[in-house]
What we know:
Helix content is 77%, strand content 0%. It is mostly helical. The radius of gyration is 18 Å and the shape is elongated.
Amino acid sequence: MTAFAPNAFFLFFSRALDGLTAGNIPVAFAVISDSTKPEERAKAFGLIGSALNFGFVFGPAIAAFTLTLGQAVPFIIAGVITTIAAILTALYLPETISIWEKYKKENF
């Protein structure tokens, strides 16, 4: 939506929509907390922290290199990557409640 915003109103609306749907990081931390054993939890949190930092460093770098192709290209690339991540999450992320219930039965 940001890539193809015809005016400032649509740009503002796209940013507002992004803000309303930006609760993905706490959900990722909750999934890690629910689906890992306590002794492996620090490693899992470190891995997700590294992945987030990787995105914070290389995301702007990729955007800078693709700006020569057009101002909308970095937003299109970000949208494609986000769509792929959402599809892979829907297909491969197991339900964590059942994992947690199974873990509690085995260990408590």
